[in-house]
Specification:
The complex is a heterodimer of chains A (393) and B (461). Chain A is an alpha/beta fold. Chain A has helices at 3-19, 21-32, 46-51, 79-89, 106-118, 138-157, 163-189, 196-208, 211-226, 250-257, 269-275, 285-299, 312-323, 337-352, 369-384; strands spanning 36-39, 55-58, 98-101, 124-126, 237-242, 262-266, 327-333, 357-362. In chain A, strands 2-1-3-4 form a four-stranded parallel beta sheet, sandwiched between helices. In chain B, helix 9 crosses helix 16. Classes of the chains: A alpha/beta (393), B alpha/beta (461).
Chain lengths: 393, 461
């Protein structure tokens, strides 16, 4: 079998799982008899659930039109939160044994609270991680929440979680993140021109699959990609940024790439942000998970966290420099407050550095792709101009 | 024509450019004018802080003002100033400044307004804009830009993640040069079976966690001011605040009478005093005056509405651009809005927790009791309790477009209320952005709900 065909087969198999996480979870449950635990974005340490012998599934947006969920949450909440509530109201969460959340996001908490009323027999546990990262008393607080989660998972799964179990899970997740980062490196270098749709499938499947099974497939894929000899594309390179909590619709990514550009990097949640930071492998494993929470915001800053010293705009500028991208498309999920609030800071810095950028608001209900295509094409033309100005398109 | 600004903002007099209307049907309390003057004097004084060489802190969220007062600094509560601008219809320039800076209008309008003020403050707009001609209304852009720039920030936002993030932006707008202290609050979520409104292990643990942070805040203030914290001043302030809060609650309870002597809109007009005015005898006097006026009304059989036929609760944060408008809208339909989550379950609403001699833990408990820091289960418990206490027919939910914090749980609580036989309705609006208010939607839905209450009564009869 040709290596490209093998690559495609692996990626497609992961894409199929990413497209229907519930089917995978049901099959896993049947096969193992374990519990399926829905974990909410964006900072939940899946390692803890894995250490309890359960399957951690980062709960995904469902593409179905919001129906019953409309009577539980307003239309001015982001598509992800509305979809969560709708999925609970339409019986799509029946396969989950519990839901766990650590993130303090006002919309997400509102949605999860509504879910509690819709599916009262399914445990939904909030272990709120302090969102302000600067204070010396924040890490002990987060550590306390991790200990609570550990106890809750022990109760749910009926087994003790030993430090060694957590350490094993940390190693498994670090391995997986490392493999995905290797693919990102190959993509940035131009050796492996993975499309954004494919990249999303690789990360999204990591969010919902048994981590060792996922890594095994990546172990097959990475050597195939490394063996490629493709020349780097001469098309303008772009960086995709933003879209917290859930994946942008693949057709949007296809449209962007149809405009004569190549996407070489991203900091999407269902992308590099998710896999950028490893859990420290040394010391007490619960303490390591605590450090990971703080490290990942320093590594790839996120405006959902409050940290004086973390600058997303600075990170973006460095990322662009590293990948050679000549422009950025910022994807803001409609009604995402932390992103709306921070966008002017991004804009200010991108203008200062004369990095062309375009903002696209993404929506659950779909997007006017042809209209957006015109805007992306304008950005591309702008990038191609010999003398650039810093104006956003 | 000369108009009084307070009357204008309460809807009793038209603003310039508006046509005169028929006399307002809502019989609003006269004593709230005293509160309006106290608040106006407070802001006017704050506007001169720089000239007086005072240290100024910008803060958001909980009522930490007694601590700031005892630290000897002057303070601006961000949401309060945003609300004031909106209530005076002066929010436009600040919001436009925010929009020009890049904010999408679906973002919290409090944040947009206050950040817009920061932008205008920095721009030095006061020197560059034309003066508005009307003598009673401050020039629009000037009013938004009169806030003295801060010396440092304190964020103390319970419940709302945006509230915390917004000060991160304010910090950046001032070039990351100013000191910045943050208090974090756990949401009163209720993981454990013993959890509920002001009870359970989570409540006690969260209270101690917040209290510990307040002590850290005091250390921060001592460092910033170079002065020892004045604990006696804090005790004195909390003594007066506790007294004022008790009087306010007693006055609120008097409105269980039928017909009610005062309505939700009177309490809305009194939020600023209880939220951020200094704890002084003047604050106690104000709420004593309000209570006395209500008692006098009860004695004289004077009601808030000429013909009270319906008794309702208002849920959600206030639509500050529309206070007078809404007061009259409901009054025109003989609908007395008796109470609300915003007015009745916040602002030192459990004064028994305050020990003036040792106030920190009780203050922490109140900060956690922000009405937007509860699970829907807690909200339902508290709101349905008030519906029963005040003998209400239904709940009006203000679906606040840019405030997810105030909107969380509303649809769930509505279902809980419906199970108790209460009628519910929703209308769309916003805390400080008038463009989201849809009058016809409110009108038709209110009429429909009141008709349903009539039908319900007829069936029972």
């Amino acid at each position: 079998m040709a290596s490209s065909q093998k690559e495609n087969e692996i990626i497609q198999s992961l894409a199929d799982i990413a497209a229907d996480p519930s089917a995978y979870a049901s099959a896993w449950k049947q096969r193992t008899g374990g519990k399926v635990v829905g974990i909410m974005p964006m900072n939940f340490p899946g390692e803890l659930v894995h250490a309890a012998g359960a399957l951690p599934v980062v709960v995904q947006e469902d593409r179905a039109t919001i129906t019953l969920g409309r009577s539980l949450i307003y239309e001015f909440y982001c598509g992800y939160t509305r979809s969560l509530v709708d999925q609970s109201a339409t019986g799509k969460f029946e396969g989950y044994d519990a839901f766990l959340i650590v993130d303090h996001c006002v919309a997400l908490l509102g949605a999860i609270d509504a879910m509690r009323f819709e599916i009262p027999d399914t445990p939904i546990y909030l272990a709120q991680f302090t969102a302000s990262m600067d204070e010396p008393w924040s890490p002990p607080q987060v550590r306390g929440r991790i200990d609570e989660l550990r106890a809750r998972l022990e109760e749910l799964c009926g087994r003790k979680i030993a430090d060694g179990d957590i350490a094993t899970s940390i190693a498994a997740f670090n391995r997986n993140r490392g493999l995905l980062r290797r693919i990102y490196d190959l993509r940035r270098s131009g050796v492996a021109p993975i499309t954004s749709r494919q990249m999303q499938a690789l990360v999204k499947s990591a969010m919902v699959m048994d981590i060792d099974e996922h890594s095994a497939r990546l172990e097959e894929l990475v050597p195939l990609l490394e063996a490629r000899t493709a020349e780097a594309s001469r098309l303008p390179k772009l960086h995709l940024s933003g879209n917290f909590c859930h994946a942008p619709h693949p057709e949007l990514l296809d449209m962007i790439e149809s405009c004569g550009v190549v996407v070489v990097d991203d900091d999407l949640y269902t992308g590099y942000r998710y896999i950028a930071t490893d859990v420290p492998a040394d010391g007490d494993p619960a303490e390591a998970l605590t450090r990971w929470y703080f490290n990942r915001n320093t590594n790839v800053p996120c405006s959902t966290r409050a940290q004086k010293s973390a600058d997303w705009e600075g990170y973006l500028a460095k990322a662009v420099e590293k990948s050679g991208a000549s422009g950025i498309i910022i994807l803001i999920a409609k009604f995402c407050e932390p992103h709306m609030l921070y966008y002017p800071e991004l804009r200010k810095e991108l203008r200062r550095r004369e990095i062309p950028h375009l903002v696209i608001e993404t929506e659950h209900e779909g997007l006017p792709l042809e209209m957006l295509k015109t805007r992306v094409e304008a950005l591309v033309e702008h990038i191609k101009r010999p003398v650039r100005s810093a104006e956003a398109v | 024509m000369s108009i009084n600004l307070e009357q204008a903002k309460s809807g009793q007099q038209p603003l310039p450019g508006q046509t005169a209307k028929t006399p307002a049907p809502a019989n609003r309390l006269m004593s709230t004018r005293t509160g309006s003057k106290l608040v106006r004097d407070y802001w006017d004084n704050l506007f001169t802080a720089r000239e007086r060489g005072a240290t100024v802190v910008w803060y958001n969220g909980a009522a930490i003002n007694p601590i700031l007062q005892a630290a000897g600094v002057e303070y601006c509560h961000g949401e309060a100033f945003g609300a004031r601008l909106a209530a005076m219809h002066l929010e436009g320039p600040a919001q436009q400044a925010g929009e020009s800076y890049g904010y999408i209008n679906e973002l919290c309008s409090y944040a947009r307004t206050t950040i817009g003020c920061a932008l205008l403050t920095q721009k030095g707009a006061a020197d560059n804009v034309e003066m508005d001609e009307h003598p009673d209304i401050p020039p629009k852009e000037i009013m938004a830009s009169r806030l003295p720039a801060p010396d440092f920030f304190v964020n103390a936002y319970a419940g709302c993640s945006t509230g915390q993030q917004w000060d991160e932006i304010s910090y950046r707008l001032f070039n990351k040069k100013l000191p910045f202290f943050k208090i974090s609050y756990p949401l009163l979520w209720g993981n454990k079976p013993d959890a509920g409104y002001i009870r359970g292990e989570e409540w006690e643990t969260a209270s101690r966690y917040v209290a510990d942070q307040i002590y850290k805040l005091i250390e921060f203030l001592e460092f910033q001011t170079g002065r020892k914290f004045d604990w006696d001043a804090l005790r004195e302030s909390m003594f007066y605040i506790k007294k004022a809060a008790e009087l306010r609650l007693e006055a609120l309870d008097l409105c269980a009478a039928r017909p009610t002597p005062a309505v939700f809109w009177d309490w809305i007009a009194s939020i600023a005093p209880i939220n951020f005015l200094p704890g002084t005898p003047a604050l106690v006097d104000y709420f004593a005056e309000m209570k006395a006026e209500i008692e006098q009304r009860l004695k004289d059989n004077v009601s808030a509405l000429p013909n009270e036929r319906y008794r309702l609760m208002f849920d959600g944060i206030m639509n500050w651009n529309k206070v007078g408008w809404l007061a009259n809208k409901f009054a025109e339909h003989d609908a007395a809005v008796i109470c609300g989550r915003y007015t009745h379950t916040s602002f030192w609403n459990e004064p028994h927790f305050i020990d003036p001699e040792d106030p920190i833990l009780g203050m922490a408990k109140h900060y956690l009791l922000c009405p937007f820091n509860h699970s829907a289960k807690n909200l339902g418990e508290v709101m349905l309790r008030d519906c029963e206490k005040f003998g209400l027919d239904g709940i009006v939910f203000h679906a606040t477009r840019t405030c997810r914090s105030a909107s969380n749980g509303q649809m769930v609580v509505a279902q809980m209320a419906q199970k108790k036989g209460l009628q519910t309705m929703f209308f769309e609006g916003d805390v400080a952005d008038e463009s989201f208010y849809k009058d016809e939607v409110l009108q038709s839905r209110l009429e429909a709900m009141l008709e349903t209450i009539d039908v319900q009564r007829a069936r029972i009869a």
